[in-house]
Design goal:
This protein has 428 residues and is α/β, with parallel strands linked by helices. It has helices spanning 36-42, 56-59, 63-73, 87-96, 109-118, 132-138, 213-225, 242-254, 271-279, 294-299, 306-319, 336-348, 366-373, 381-387, 401-421, 424-427, and strands spanning 5-10, 50-55, 77-81, 101-105, 123-126, 144-147, 185-188, 191-192, 209-210, 230-233, 260-265, 282-290, 322-329, 353-358. It has 2 domains: 5-147, Response regulator (Rossmann fold); 178-360 and 397-427, Aldolase class I (TIM Barrel). It binds cobalamin and iron/sulfur cluster.
């Protein structure tokens, strides 16, 4: 019998929501991330299926090219992995491809699953799909919405990275890279979820769920074997659990795993954790610092305060870990003085890799809800967009055009300041 064909696709960039958050400078097209969501699902699909992964975003495909690749492969089941930013491409692909069964998963389904069914999906998967997707196949692909909850990460295989061509993820050096860690920087997730509730964030899972140390070591080893010049752990909040971080660090040392690696976490003030990470060769921590003003940190509902940020930076400087610090400007109550002195204060803290964003009401975030309920938005723009996604959607601005322009120019100035100050960290 002919194997059934499954194609799992990441949406192309074309037509995506116009981003006000992140300046162009930080969206360096050389940096690509393997789509771990679909790779993790693919690893759980029984052998009798023929699987293709199409990462249209990383390949830089247009919508038309994406549709052509899908139609040429002619899958029996077409699975789309969708973030809300790319809901327009999702609807186009649902409407314009001919696979007999089309399904959708990814963060966009969390709130919009019912609508996605009306938009033409046969089935929609919410949350982790490693267990429910193979079960759905076994059950004969019924229609409807399927809730996967959080899976036990030690019971699932490592993402099926072999289904992709590594060459598509090689980084070609350019002068605007924030750091240079060789040509093959591969991501992994060691945990998912975050218990905090920062107002600008749409974190998908509130409960911290993690892989065992042994599983992480197996994944590190696999990535090193694949030729990774650097490993990036892109968790929501890597360092929530101190014992886990220290045990993993110890195991990295014991297993002689010497590779450049980094993790995405939160401000850490436990000295032993930073010391253990440094001893294990962790070179960078990517952390949402967001503000150096306690009132703004409180407004953002951040768990840390300025004194914690100072301690964290001091510890990272002491142990030789670089901080890639995310900052958000544009919060209510922010003063001219704050904006003027911010770069110098970041310098003084020894943060080598600052990354500036503009506060903007992303879909499904508490900040957006606040603007909606306070009447600053006269209607539910994101709700309307999810029901009827339009190409290049842009969320109406709550600031004046003048103020928005000034804030964007401020970010450009910051980028130039840090570029001028120490060109070496942009190219070294
Ligand atoms: C890595 C990452 C990126 C990377 C690359 C994305 C990539 N190709 O992987 C970069 C840096 C480019 C990025 C950018 C942005 N991101 Co991002 N990103 C992430 C992050 C940290 C990890 C994604 C990941 O790999 N998770 C691990 C995998 C295993 O989980 P998963 O992808 O959710 O997949 C599981 C399920 O969703 C499901 N599933 C997924 N796809 C499919 C498909 C099918 C068919 C099925 C059945 C199941 C299924 O099964 C998977 C396994 O359980 C997430 C946070 C998070 N924890 O998910 C944010 C996240 C996805 N990003 C988010 C946002 C908002 C952005 C930005 C808009 C931010 C900005 N303004 O700059 C941009 C723009 C993105 C864009 N243009 O589309 C939001 C999305 C919210 C939403 N409702 O859509 C998240 C959830 C972060 C957050 N806390 O708010 N991001
Ligand atoms: S911004 Fe980071 S710390 Fe805050 S809720 Fe989102 S994942 Fe958690």
């Amino acid at each position: 019998m002919k194997a059934k064909k499954i194609l799992l696709a990441v949406m192309p960039y074309e037509g995506e929501v116009q981003d006000r958050v992140t300046a162009k400078f930080y969206k360096n097209s050389a940096v690509k991330y393997m789509p771990l969501g679909v790779l993790s699902v693919a690893a759980c699909i029984p052998e009798q299926y023929e699987i293709k992964i199409l990462d249209a975003a990383s390949l830089g495909l247009t919508l038309e090219e994406t549709i052509t690749v899908i139609e040429d492969f002619a899958p029996d089941i077409l699975g789309l992995s969708v973030v809300t930013y790319r809901a327009w491409a999702m609807v186009e692909i649902l409407n314009r491809t001919s696979a007999p069964i089309k399904i959708v998963g990814g963060p966009h389904t969390t709130k919009s699953h019912a609508i996605i069914l009306q938009q033409g999906a046969h089935a929609v998967f919410v949350d982790d799909a490693e267990i429910i997707f193979p079960k759905w196949l076994e059950d004969g692909c019924p229609p409807g919405v399927f809730f996967g909850g959080q899976v036990d990460m030690d019971t699932i295989p490592l993402p099926a990275r072999h289904l992709l061509d590594l060459e598509d993820y090689r980084i070609e050096q350019n002068d605007d890279l924030l750091f240079n860690v060789g040509s093959l920087r591969l991501p992994m997730f060691s945990s998912k979820g975050c218990p905090y509730g920062c107002i600008y964030c749409d974190v998908q899972q509130k409960t911290f769920n993690f892989k065992s140390v042994d599983k992480c070591i197996a994944e590190f080893s696999e990535l090193i074997k694949m030729g990774a010049t650097s490993i990036h752990i892109l968790d929501d909040a890597f360092n929530i659990n101190k014992a886990r971080v220290s045990a993993l660090s110890e195991a990295i040392v014991q297993n002689n795993l010497t590779v450049d690696w980094s993790a995405r976490g939160t401000v850490e003030i436990r000295e032993q954790v930073i010391a253990d990470l440094a001893a294990a060769g962790c070179k960078r921590l990517h952390v949402g610092i967001e503000s150096l003003d306690d009132d703004i940190l409180i407004y953002f509902k951040k768990a840390c305060r300025l004194k914690h940020i100072e301690q964290f930076c001091e510890l990272c400087n002491k142990y030789g870990i670089d901080v890639l610090g995310y900052f958000i400007i544009g919060a209510p109550g922010e003063t001219e003085e704050y904006l003027r002195t911010l770069p110098q204060r970041i310098d003084n803290l020894g943060i080598r890799l600052p990354y500036f964003n503009l506060l903007s009401p992303l879909a499904e975030t508490p900040y957006y809800e606040e603007l909606l309920h306070s009447g600053q938005f006269d209607r539910d723009h994101w709700g309307d967009f999810c029901k009827n996604p339009v190409r290049d959607f842009i969320i109406p601005e709550v600031r004046s055009v003048d103020n928005e322009g000034k804030l964007q120019a401020t970010i450009d100035d910051y980028v130039n300041y840090f570029k001028r100050k120490d060109m070496s960290f942009f190219v070294s």
